[in-house]
Protein backbone atom coordinates (compact mmCIF):
# COMPACT_ATOMS: atom_id res chain seq x y z
CA UNK A 1 0.00 0.00 0.00
CA UNK A 2 2.81 2.36 0.86
CA UNK A 3 4.74 1.43 -2.27
CA UNK A 4 1.63 1.88 -4.48
CA UNK A 5 0.95 5.33 -2.98
CA UNK A 6 4.53 6.33 -3.51
CA UNK A 7 4.39 5.33 -7.18
CA UNK A 8 1.15 7.24 -7.66
CA UNK A 9 2.64 10.32 -6.03
CA UNK A 10 5.64 10.14 -8.36
CA UNK A 11 3.38 9.72 -11.41
CA UNK A 12 1.30 12.80 -10.47
CA UNK A 13 4.44 14.79 -9.85
CA UNK A 14 5.80 13.73 -13.23
CA UNK A 15 2.64 14.84 -15.02
CA UNK A 16 2.71 18.16 -13.18
CA UNK A 17 6.33 18.73 -14.11
CA UNK A 18 5.67 17.93 -17.78
CA UNK A 19 2.77 20.35 -17.82
CA UNK A 20 4.89 23.08 -16.29
CA UNK A 21 7.65 22.46 -18.83
CA UNK A 22 5.16 22.59 -21.72
CA UNK A 23 3.66 25.81 -20.38
CA UNK A 24 7.13 27.30 -19.96
CA UNK A 25 8.09 26.34 -23.52
CA UNK A 26 4.90 27.86 -24.89
CA UNK A 27 5.47 31.08 -22.95
CA UNK A 28 9.10 31.22 -24.08
CA UNK A 29 8.03 30.71 -27.70
CA UNK A 30 5.48 33.55 -27.45
CA UNK A 31 8.08 35.92 -25.97
CA UNK A 32 10.61 35.21 -28.69
CA UNK A 33 8.05 35.69 -31.45
CA UNK A 34 7.24 39.19 -30.16
CA UNK A 35 10.78 40.42 -30.85
CA UNK A 36 11.61 38.16 -33.80
CA UNK A 37 13.13 40.08 -36.77
CA UNK A 38 10.53 40.86 -39.37
CA UNK A 39 7.63 40.66 -36.93
CA UNK A 40 5.47 43.59 -35.92
CA UNK A 41 7.45 46.29 -34.11
CA UNK A 42 5.92 48.52 -31.44
CA UNK A 43 3.14 50.67 -32.88
CA UNK A 44 5.07 53.90 -32.26
CA UNK A 45 7.88 52.91 -34.62
CA UNK A 46 5.92 51.09 -37.32
CA UNK A 47 2.74 53.16 -37.52
CA UNK A 48 1.88 53.81 -41.16
CA UNK A 49 1.93 57.48 -42.12
CA UNK A 50 -1.24 58.89 -43.64
CA UNK A 51 -3.13 62.10 -44.18
CA UNK A 52 -2.16 65.50 -45.53
CA UNK A 53 1.02 67.44 -44.78
CA UNK A 54 0.57 71.17 -45.34
CA UNK A 55 3.81 72.98 -46.09
CA UNK A 56 4.26 76.75 -46.20
CA UNK A 57 7.44 77.40 -48.18
CA UNK A 58 9.40 80.26 -49.76
CA UNK A 59 8.57 80.79 -53.43
CA UNK A 60 12.11 79.91 -54.48
CA UNK A 61 11.55 76.36 -53.19
CA UNK A 62 8.62 75.68 -55.51
CA UNK A 63 10.27 73.37 -58.04
CA UNK A 64 12.43 71.36 -55.64
CA UNK A 65 9.79 71.01 -52.90
CA UNK A 66 7.14 69.98 -55.43
CA UNK A 67 9.48 67.19 -56.55
CA UNK A 68 10.16 66.16 -52.95
CA UNK A 69 6.44 66.18 -52.19
CA UNK A 70 5.79 63.68 -54.99
CA UNK A 71 8.67 61.53 -53.77
CA UNK A 72 7.28 61.58 -50.22
CA UNK A 73 3.83 60.50 -51.43
CA UNK A 74 5.42 57.65 -53.40
CA UNK A 75 7.35 56.50 -50.33
CA UNK A 76 4.28 56.74 -48.07
CA UNK A 77 1.09 55.67 -49.88
CA UNK A 78 -1.91 57.27 -48.24
CA UNK A 79 -0.20 60.62 -47.66
CA UNK A 80 -0.58 63.86 -49.57
CA UNK A 81 1.66 66.92 -49.45
CA UNK A 82 0.09 70.29 -50.22
CA UNK A 83 2.06 73.50 -50.58
CA UNK A 84 1.52 77.21 -50.15
CA UNK A 85 4.40 79.06 -51.82
CA UNK A 86 5.00 82.78 -51.45
CA UNK A 87 7.05 85.51 -49.84
CA UNK A 88 8.43 84.23 -46.53
CA UNK A 89 7.25 87.32 -44.66
CA UNK A 90 3.67 86.86 -45.87
CA UNK A 91 3.71 83.17 -45.04
CA UNK A 92 5.06 83.89 -41.55
CA UNK A 93 2.28 86.42 -40.99
CA UNK A 94 -0.31 83.84 -42.06
CA UNK A 95 1.09 81.27 -39.64
CA UNK A 96 1.13 83.65 -36.69
CA UNK A 97 -2.36 84.70 -37.71
CA UNK A 98 -3.61 81.16 -37.22
CA UNK A 99 -3.44 79.61 -40.69
CA UNK A 100 -3.40 75.79 -40.32
CA UNK A 101 -0.06 74.38 -41.46
CA UNK A 102 2.38 71.65 -40.49
CA UNK A 103 5.75 72.84 -41.77
CA UNK A 104 7.36 76.22 -42.49
CA UNK A 105 10.40 76.54 -44.76
CA UNK A 106 11.60 80.15 -44.91
CA UNK A 107 14.14 81.90 -47.11
CA UNK A 108 15.80 83.66 -44.18
CA UNK A 109 16.31 83.32 -40.43
CA UNK A 110 14.68 86.75 -40.00
CA UNK A 111 11.35 85.59 -41.40
CA UNK A 112 11.52 82.32 -39.46
CA UNK A 113 12.07 84.39 -36.30
CA UNK A 114 8.63 85.93 -36.79
CA UNK A 115 7.18 82.46 -36.23
CA UNK A 116 9.49 81.38 -33.41
CA UNK A 117 9.03 84.64 -31.53
CA UNK A 118 5.28 84.07 -31.64
CA UNK A 119 5.77 80.61 -30.14
CA UNK A 120 4.37 78.90 -33.22
CA UNK A 121 7.32 76.59 -33.97
CA UNK A 122 7.97 73.23 -32.36
CA UNK A 123 11.62 72.82 -31.49
CA UNK A 124 14.54 74.69 -33.02
CA UNK A 125 14.47 75.47 -36.79
CA UNK A 126 17.28 73.88 -38.79
CA UNK A 127 19.07 75.38 -41.79
CA UNK A 128 18.71 72.91 -44.66
CA UNK A 129 20.07 74.90 -47.65
CA UNK A 130 21.47 78.29 -48.62
CA UNK A 131 20.83 80.43 -51.69
CA UNK A 132 22.77 83.09 -53.57
CA UNK A 133 21.59 85.99 -55.70
CA UNK A 134 22.00 86.32 -59.45
CA UNK A 135 20.85 88.85 -62.03
CA UNK A 136 18.21 87.61 -64.47
CA UNK A 137 18.25 89.38 -67.83
CA UNK A 138 16.35 88.96 -71.07
CA UNK A 139 17.51 86.02 -73.20
CA UNK A 140 20.77 86.91 -74.94
CA UNK A 141 21.36 89.72 -72.46
CA UNK A 142 20.65 92.49 -75.03
CA UNK A 143 21.47 95.25 -72.54
CA UNK A 144 24.94 93.79 -71.91
CA UNK A 145 24.51 93.61 -68.16
CA UNK A 146 27.73 92.25 -66.66
CA UNK A 147 27.74 93.63 -63.12
CA UNK A 148 25.54 94.90 -60.32
CA UNK A 149 26.61 98.43 -61.21
CA UNK A 150 25.20 97.99 -64.72
CA UNK A 151 21.72 97.80 -63.21
CA UNK A 152 21.98 101.50 -62.35
CA UNK A 153 22.18 102.49 -66.05
CA UNK A 154 19.70 105.17 -67.05
CA UNK A 155 16.67 103.78 -68.86
CA UNK A 156 17.18 100.17 -67.71
CA UNK A 157 14.01 98.71 -66.23
CA UNK A 158 15.01 96.71 -63.15
CA UNK A 159 12.78 94.80 -60.72
CA UNK A 160 13.61 93.94 -57.12
CA UNK A 161 11.83 91.95 -54.45
CA UNK A 162 10.30 94.04 -51.69
CA UNK A 163 12.79 94.74 -48.90
CA UNK A 164 10.66 92.76 -46.43
CA UNK A 165 11.05 89.66 -48.61
CA UNK A 166 14.32 87.72 -48.11
CA UNK A 167 15.44 88.12 -51.74
CA UNK A 168 14.79 91.86 -51.49
CA UNK A 169 16.64 92.18 -48.20
CA UNK A 170 19.60 90.29 -49.69
CA UNK A 171 19.62 92.49 -52.80
CA UNK A 172 19.54 95.63 -50.65
CA UNK A 173 22.43 94.27 -48.59
CA UNK A 174 24.51 93.67 -51.73
CA UNK A 175 23.70 97.12 -53.12
CA UNK A 176 24.52 98.86 -49.85
CA UNK A 177 27.82 96.98 -49.56
CA UNK A 178 28.70 98.23 -53.05
CA UNK A 179 27.59 101.79 -52.35
CA UNK A 180 25.14 101.62 -55.27
CA UNK A 181 21.80 103.40 -55.54
CA UNK A 182 19.11 101.67 -57.57
CA UNK A 183 15.51 102.72 -58.12
CA UNK A 184 13.56 99.77 -59.53
CA UNK A 185 10.44 100.10 -61.67
CA UNK A 186 8.65 97.87 -59.15
CA UNK A 187 9.06 95.96 -55.91
CA UNK A 188 7.59 92.45 -56.00
CA UNK A 189 6.16 90.41 -53.13
CA UNK A 190 8.12 87.25 -53.91
CA UNK A 191 11.03 86.16 -56.07
CA UNK A 192 8.90 84.36 -58.67
CA UNK A 193 6.93 87.52 -59.32
CA UNK A 194 10.17 89.44 -59.88
CA UNK A 195 11.41 86.81 -62.31
CA UNK A 196 8.09 86.74 -64.18
CA UNK A 197 8.48 90.45 -64.98
CA UNK A 198 11.61 89.61 -66.97
CA UNK A 199 10.10 86.49 -68.55
CA UNK A 200 7.20 88.60 -69.82
CA UNK A 201 9.62 91.30 -71.01
CA UNK A 202 8.00 93.82 -68.66
CA UNK A 203 11.45 94.42 -67.17
CA UNK A 204 15.00 94.25 -68.53
CA UNK A 205 16.50 92.64 -65.44
CA UNK A 206 15.72 91.44 -61.93
CA UNK A 207 17.80 90.47 -58.92
CA UNK A 208 16.64 86.98 -57.96
CA UNK A 209 18.18 83.73 -56.77
CA UNK A 210 20.42 81.43 -58.78
CA UNK A 211 17.85 78.68 -58.28
CA UNK A 212 15.17 80.78 -59.97
CA UNK A 213 17.37 81.58 -62.96
CA UNK A 214 18.10 77.87 -63.33
CA UNK A 215 14.44 76.91 -63.05
CA UNK A 216 13.50 79.44 -65.75
CA UNK A 217 15.70 77.72 -68.31
CA UNK A 218 16.06 79.65 -71.58
CA UNK A 219 13.39 82.19 -70.62
CA UNK A 220 16.08 84.34 -68.98
CA UNK A 221 19.85 84.61 -68.87
CA UNK A 222 21.77 84.67 -65.61
CA UNK A 223 24.58 87.05 -64.72
CA UNK A 224 26.63 86.35 -61.61
CA UNK A 225 28.07 89.20 -59.55
CA UNK A 226 30.70 88.99 -56.78
CA UNK A 227 28.75 91.12 -54.29
CA UNK A 228 26.21 88.27 -53.99
CA UNK A 229 28.71 86.37 -51.84
CA UNK A 230 28.09 88.95 -49.11
CA UNK A 231 24.35 88.33 -49.10
CA UNK A 232 23.82 84.57 -49.08
CA UNK A 233 20.56 83.52 -47.43
CA UNK A 234 20.21 80.60 -45.01
CA UNK A 235 16.94 78.66 -45.35
CA UNK A 236 15.55 77.27 -42.07
CA UNK A 237 12.79 74.67 -41.77
CA UNK A 238 10.62 73.92 -38.75
CA UNK A 239 7.73 71.78 -37.59
CA UNK A 240 4.91 74.05 -36.44
CA UNK A 241 3.61 73.85 -32.89
CA UNK A 242 0.00 73.05 -33.74
CA UNK A 243 0.77 70.85 -36.75
CA UNK A 244 -2.38 68.82 -37.56
CA UNK A 245 -0.25 65.92 -38.85
CA UNK A 246 2.96 66.03 -36.80
CA UNK A 247 4.11 62.45 -37.48
CA UNK A 248 4.02 62.73 -41.27
CA UNK A 249 5.37 66.27 -41.11
CA UNK A 250 8.46 65.13 -39.21
CA UNK A 251 9.00 62.49 -41.88
CA UNK A 252 8.76 65.11 -44.64
CA UNK A 253 11.32 67.32 -42.89
CA UNK A 254 13.57 64.27 -42.55
CA UNK A 255 13.30 63.70 -46.32
CA UNK A 256 14.27 67.33 -47.00
CA UNK A 257 17.34 66.95 -44.79
CA UNK A 258 18.30 63.48 -46.06
CA UNK A 259 21.02 62.86 -48.69
CA UNK A 260 18.22 62.15 -51.17
CA UNK A 261 16.52 65.47 -50.43
CA UNK A 262 19.78 67.37 -50.50
CA UNK A 263 20.55 65.91 -53.92
CA UNK A 264 17.29 67.32 -55.28
CA UNK A 265 17.95 70.73 -53.70
CA UNK A 266 21.58 71.07 -54.81
CA UNK A 267 20.51 69.89 -58.25
CA UNK A 268 18.17 72.89 -58.33
CA UNK A 269 21.08 75.22 -57.56
CA UNK A 270 20.84 75.53 -53.78
CA UNK A 271 24.01 75.54 -51.70
CA UNK A 272 24.59 73.05 -48.89
CA UNK A 273 24.02 74.43 -45.37
Secondary-structure blueprint:
Blueprint: H1 2-34, H2 43-46, E1 51-58, H3 62-75, E2 79-86, H4 88-96, E3 103-105, H5 109-117, E4 121-131, E5 133-137, E6 158-161, H6 166-178, E7 186-188, H7 191-199, E8 205-209, H8 210-216, E9 221-223, E10 233-240, H9 246-257, H10 259-267
Parallel strand pairs: 1-2, 1-3, 6-7, 6-8
Antiparallel strand pairs: 3-10, 4-10, 5-8, 5-9
Helix pairs in contact: 4-5, 9-10
InterPro entries: ModA (IPR005950), ModA/WtpA (IPR050682)
Family: Belongs to the bacterial solute-binding protein ModA family.
Signal peptide: 1-24
The outline comes out as: elongated
Which strands sit side by side, in order, in the main sheet? 2-1-3-10-4
What would you report as the Rg, rounded to the nearest angstrom? 30 Å
Q: How many helices does DSSP assign?
A: 10
Alpha-carbon distance between the two ends? 90 Å
- Binned strand content: 15-25%
**Largest sheet data:** 5 strands, mixed
Order of helices and strands: HHEHEHEHEEEHEHEHEEHH
What does the model show?
44% of the residues lie in helices and 21% in strands. The protein has ten helices and ten strands. A five-stranded mixed beta sheet has the order 2-1-3-10-4. A five-stranded mixed beta sheet has the order 7-6-8-5-9. The radius of gyration is 30 Å and the shape is elongated. It starts with a helix and ends in a 6-residue tail after the last helix.
Amino acid sequence: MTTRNARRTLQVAGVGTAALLALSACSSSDDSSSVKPGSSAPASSSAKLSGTVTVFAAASLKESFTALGKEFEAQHPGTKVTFSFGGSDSLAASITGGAPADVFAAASPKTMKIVTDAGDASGTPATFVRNQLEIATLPGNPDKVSSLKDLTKSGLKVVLCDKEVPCGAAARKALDASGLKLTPVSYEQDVKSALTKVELKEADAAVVYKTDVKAAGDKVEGVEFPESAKAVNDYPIALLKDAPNAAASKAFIALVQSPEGQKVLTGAGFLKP
